[in-house]
Structures are given as C-alpha cells and as structure tokens.
C-alpha cells in the first residue's frame, strides 16, 4: 500500500530573505542576503571570526561567508560572534570547556594573510566533545575572490562534519522577468548559490526557459523564444559563444545533458506531436526515444546515466515515467494524484522529485524509488521547477509570493531554508549547477 | 462492406440534415410548401448543408433573388461579426474545443477557404499552473486542435502556422480561476 505523508519541517523554519537590487547600467544584478530567523534543531557550530594580517578588501569577511553558508544549509546553527567568550585563531587558544558551556559541537578558527594580490587562509575545525581537530588546511584565492575562498572553506567544513560533499561553491542559473520601458525583459543569470555575484548572461524581450547545466559546469543549454518560437541554444559561459542546436518546426524544448556532455535529451514536435529525442551534439544526429500520441516531455537522465525519467500524459494526465535504458518500455512511477510532472532524480537512485498537484495546489513531492512512498515536501502552493543540489541535500524551486515568483531553497527532506525573491518582477526556472573541481 | 459504407453515408447525410434542421430559425422544413426564398437561405447559411433544402424550387424568382442578395449581405455581416472573435478558451489540462467556439471557428475556416492567400498563426497558451515544459506542449496541442478543426472545415494546411508560448505569455496577470480561465487559450493572428 502506497503511503503519503506530509513532512512536517524537521528543522525549525529558517528564513533568509535575499532582495535583489538591480544596478542600473551594469551587467551585474547584486543579491543581498538578510537572515531573519535562525534554526532551532540544527547542529551548533562556532565560526570564530578569522584573524587578519595585511589589508583585506572591503566587503563580507571570509568567516562571515562561511557562517552564512552553513546557516543557509539548514543543517547548522552558527553561534553569533557577539556571544563568543574568546576569539581564538589557533588551536592553542581554543578552550574546549568554554565552547562546551556555550553548547557548541564544533569550532572553526582560522587566520587570513595577504601577500600581494592573494589571500591565504589557514583554518582548523575542532570537535568540541572529543577535543579533537577534524580538519586543518591552507587555501588561497585572489584578493578579488574572497567569496570563492569562503565557499571553499564551507564545503570542506560541511564535508568533514556530514561526510557529504558541500555544494556551496556551485552556481545557480535562473531566469528573471521584469518590465523595462514598457516591454517584458527576460534575463538568464548565473550567481553563487547564495544569490551573490549574479551576472546576466542573456537578455531578451521574449521568454527564456529551461536552463540546464552541462556536467562540467561550463555551458548552459536553454530554450529561447528570441526568434519567435521555442529554439534550443547551447551557451558557453566563459566566451558567451552561443550555438543554435535545435530549431525544427514546432517545439524545441526541455534540454537535458548526458553525463559525458556530448548529447542532449530534448522534446521536439517536428513530426506533429511532442516526443523525446536524443541529439548527438557533434553530428546533430537525432534518435527518437518515445513514439506515442500523448505529450512526452521533460526528459532527464537517471543516476546511472543509461535510463531516463520523463513526463507523459498517456494515462490521461501528466505522470512520471522511467525507462531503464533508451529503448526500454516506459514504466509509470507516480500514482498519487492526477498531475505529476517534471521529474528530477537524485544522484544515487533513491528519490525522484517532481511537481505534484494535490487538490488545487501544486507542491514539490518526491517518491522513494524503492518503496514507492510519496512525500509532499513543500507547504507553498504554486510550486514549479524543482532542481536538486549536486550533493542531493538541498532542493531549489520556484514558487509564488504574492504576485511574484521567487526561488526557495529547502533541504531535500522538506525543511524550509531560504528564499530568493527579486526586488521587482519574477525570478524562476532555477537550475543548480554541478560540483566542479 | 459496401453496405457499411452506404450506411455510413446515409448516417452522415442524416446527421448533416439534422444539424441543418437544428440550426435554422425554427421554421418547419419538412413541409415542402413552407419553402420560401428566405427559408432556403436560412438553410444555406449553415454551410455545407444545402442538400437538405434543395428540393424546393420556390425561391427562383426575381424578388427571391433580391431577398437572397439581402440575405447574403446579412450573412456576410454575420460571418464578419463572428470572425471578430479570435481567442478560444480551454479547460484545465485539456485541448478540447468548446461547443460555443465551433460556429466562430467554422466562420474562420470558411474565410480562409475563400481567401487562399490569407495566412493565420495559431498561438497556443496555458495557464501558470503545472510545469512550464508540459504547458509548452499543452499550448501546442491546443493550437493543433484548432488547426485540425480549421482544416476539416475548409482551410488548407499551408495557410496555418502554429506556435506555443506555454504559460509564458498570460493574457491576464493574477493567480485566480478567472485569470487562469482567460489564459488557457488559442489566439488566431491573421497576417
């Protein structure tokens, strides 16, 4: 018997509001982060402000970036620095008894040194109960990339404690929509996962949707209506070079990369009906993967890289299907309601996440692929476009706040974490980029 | 097989007749004597169903022709008025053409049939609910449903182009049933 449960938030609700201020006449659209509420049952950690030698650039401190990253994950509750009894930067100054008294499980200390145009960080992470160092490292970055350095340290701390790779150095792609001089303005943007360092990659008066990261994080495939109809482009981020890869009659949509980055799954209706194809990017050769009178779309590879999940309304309404290989018989995965669409599997073959209609509301839900158990993860009600972090721990999706679309990040088991509204207009279609070494 | 074809043809004739009958202004047509010029025209205006009233020769007089001309002008005006409507609405997650849209779409199809140089673009849309890519396919299916209807009713394939915008171009902003209902649509854009 199939069970459905509504996950009550395991972590106390944690809201981080990020407002976007679009800078006029600039290619940048900076996002500001405001923490409004802390988490209750998350792991307590003290991120001690790093000592500094040499002149550091203005802006966020590295240790502050680490503190914010760990807070955003929903899995940690960093101690506010003003509550700390001392501010050690080396092991010999760490008094475990003090930190235990403050209820801390972990302490991170470090020091920053500037030499010429680089900053190096020497940092150590301690387990307070065991009074042991569990991580020690030196890392450096250009003086203009202190955020990169901060996210790197966050990744290492997260992995040392949880055993799972951190995803704080990864990037988000998303689409913003606002109105400029009376006309709609769509922008494809790429930012850090905390919304900072956003850069506009494409601007159009016509819709842009379905950004999808190549496995190496260097390219985005997306659908743009700039020619008056949906066409798939591949965009090289470093050079800005764009290639039109699919411009057939009808739909050219829902691109998704293969693991080797050499082919794309896509939805084409050139033969009259929406079907899923695989396109070899070098040759442009197409292989038709579905052949049904129904709508087949939103295909994505599963964790093996061999099979695919996709949406089909062959049963009368949209449902999630899986094929073990590209020529296997589709098997229906979702049964819990009459509308389940846009599958996004994790990297381990445990869950598939999707948009799920319950009564009149649209939520993000997931199905356990072993047991078939379906869990509704969100309490918001106009949810779209789920995208899983590459470490499988977080989920970003688009939802409505008032009349506007905002991005919300939750832990993959449903705890609410933070949202990313735009100051004006909509932000939607988030795509979480891969971990790139 | 022959029989079956004949049966089908007869059934079709019958249904066309019934359709025409249903659509007249309510005057009885079965009685041969009732056939005045205006009656014939009334049947004529339901395009494709002229056969039914064809037995009546009473309309062939000079005054009858004038009447017919008048009727034709009225008919032309009525068709033009019908064609003012260029947006057609759908229920959630369906691409079924609603009964009330049929008469208008027939008028558009007839116009396209009589103006072979005229092209039309069918723009399919969905409301904001559900997923963007599925809605893109749904918008296309709606546009294709209208395209098939126009072709069946006389337009030719080459005159019609379809594009789906999915949920990207709502006619009305807002997240309520009234806005959604106005956004699930196909728009005919004559070029």
TrEMBL record, chain A:
Organism per entry: Marinobacter santoriniensis NKSG1
Secretion signal span: 1-29
Organism placement in taxonomy: Bacteria, Pseudomonadati, Pseudomonadota, Gammaproteobacteria, Pseudomonadales
Keywords tagged on the record: Cell cycle, Cell division, Periplasm, Signal
Alphabetical list of Gene3D superfamilies matching this protein: TolB, C-terminal domain (2.120.10.30), TolB, N-terminal domain (3.40.50.10070)
Ranges for domain Prolow-density lipoprotein receptor-related protein 1-like beta-propeller: 269-415
Gene that produces this protein: tolB
HAMAP family: TolB
Function: Part of the Tol-Pal system, which plays a role in outer membrane invagination during cell division and is important for maintaining outer membrane integrity.
A Gene Ontology cellular-component term: periplasmic space
Subcellular location: Periplasm
GO biological process: cell division; protein import; proteolysis
Complexes and interactors: The Tol-Pal system is composed of five core proteins: the inner membrane proteins TolA, TolQ and TolR, the periplasmic protein TolB and the outer membrane protein Pal. They form a network linking the inner and outer membranes and the peptidoglycan layer.
Entry protein name: Tol-Pal system protein TolB
Automatic annotation (TrEMBL), chain B:
Protein family per UniProt: Belongs to the Pal lipoprotein family.
Residue ranges annotated for the OmpA-like domain, each copy included: 77-191
Family matches, as NCBIfam families: Pal_lipo (TIGR02802)
Primary localisation category: membrane
Keywords attached to this entry: Cell cycle, Cell division, Cell outer membrane, Lipoprotein, Membrane, Palmitate, Signal
Location of the protein in the cell: Cell outer membrane
Database matches in Pfam families: OmpA
Subunit (UniProt): The Tol-Pal system is composed of five core proteins: the inner membrane proteins TolA, TolQ and TolR, the periplasmic protein TolB and the outer membrane protein Pal. They form a network linking the inner and outer membranes and the peptidoglycan layer.
Keyword flag Signal: yes
Protein name: Peptidoglycan-associated protein
């Amino acid at each position: 018997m199939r069970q459905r449960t509504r996950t009550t938030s395991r972590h106390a609700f944690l809201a981080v509001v990020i407002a976007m201020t679009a800078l006029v006449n600039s290619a940048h659209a900076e996002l500001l982060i405001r923490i409004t509420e802390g988490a209750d049952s998350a792991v307590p950690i003290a991120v001690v402000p790093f000592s500094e030698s040499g002149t550091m650039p203005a802006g966020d401190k590295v240790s502050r970036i680490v503190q914010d990253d760990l807070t955003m994950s929903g899995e940690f509750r960093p101690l506010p620095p003003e509550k700390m009894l001392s501010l050690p930067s080396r092991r010999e100054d760490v008094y475990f008894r003090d930190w235990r008294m403050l209820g801390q499980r972990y302490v991170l200390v470090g020091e920053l040194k500037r030499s010429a145009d680089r900053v190096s960080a020497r940092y150590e992470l301690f387990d307070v109960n065991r009074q042991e160092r569990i991580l020690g490292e030196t890392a450096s970055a250009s003086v203009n990339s202190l955020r990169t350095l901060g996210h790197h340290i966050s990744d290492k701390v997260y992995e040392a404690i949880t055993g799972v790779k951190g995803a704080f150095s990864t990037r988000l792609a998303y689409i913003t929509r606002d109105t400029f001089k009376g006309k709609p303005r769509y922008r494809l943007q790429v930012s850090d996962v905390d919304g900072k360092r956003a850069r506009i990659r494409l601007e159009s008066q016509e819709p842009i949707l379905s950004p999808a990261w190549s496995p190496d994080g260097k390219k985005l495939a997306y659908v743009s209506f700039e020619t008056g109809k949906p066409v798939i482009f591949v965009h090289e981020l470093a050079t800005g070079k764009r290639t039109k890869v699919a411009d057939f009659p009808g739909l050219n949509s829902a691109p998704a990369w293969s693991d080797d980055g050499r082919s794309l799954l896509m939805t084409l209706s050139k033969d009259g009906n929406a079907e899923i194809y695989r396109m070899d990017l070098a040759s442009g050769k197409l292989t038709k993967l579905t052949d049904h009178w129904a709508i087949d779309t939103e295909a994505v590879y599963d964790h093996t890289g061999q099979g695919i999940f996709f949406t089909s309304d062959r049963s009368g309404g949209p449902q999630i299907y899986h094929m073990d290989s590209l020529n296997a018989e589709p098997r229906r995965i979702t049964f819990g309601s009459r509308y389940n669409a846009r599958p996004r599997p994790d990297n381990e073959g445990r869950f598939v996440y999707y948009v799920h209609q319950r009564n009149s509301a649209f939520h993000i839900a997931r199905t356990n692929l072993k047991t078939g158990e379906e869990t509704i993860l969100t309490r918001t009600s106009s949810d779209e476009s789920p995208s899983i972090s590459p470490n499988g721990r977080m989920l970003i999706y688009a939802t409505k706040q008032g009349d506007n679309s905002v991005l919300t990040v939750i832990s993959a088991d449903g705890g609410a974490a933070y949202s990313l509204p735009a100051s004006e207009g909509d932000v939607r279609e988030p795509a979480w980029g891969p971990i790139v070494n | 097989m022959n029989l079956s074809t004949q049966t089908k043809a007869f059934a079709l004739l019958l249904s066309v007749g019934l359709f025409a009958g249903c659509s007249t202004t309510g005057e009885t047509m079965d009685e041969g004597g009732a056939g005045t010029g205006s009656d014939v025209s009334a049947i004529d205006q339901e395009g494709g169903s002229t056969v039914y009233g064809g037995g009546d020769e009473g309309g062939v007089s000079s005054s009858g022709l004038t009447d017919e001309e008048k009727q034709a002008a009225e008919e032309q005006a009525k068709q033009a008025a019908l064609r003012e409507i260029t947006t057609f609405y759908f229920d959630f997650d369906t691409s079924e053409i609603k009964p009330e849209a049929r008469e208008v779409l027939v008028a558009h199809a007839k116009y396209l049939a009589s103006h072979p140089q005229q092209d039309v673009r069918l723009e399919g849309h969905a409301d904001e609910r559900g997923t963007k890519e599925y809605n893109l396919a749904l918008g296309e299916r709606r546009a294709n449903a209208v395209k098939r209807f126009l072709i069946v009713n006389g337009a030719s394939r080459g005159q019609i182009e379809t594009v789906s915008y999915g949920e990207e171009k709502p006619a009305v902003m807002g997240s309520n049933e009234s806005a959604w209902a106005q956004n699930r649509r196909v728009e005919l854009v004559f070029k």
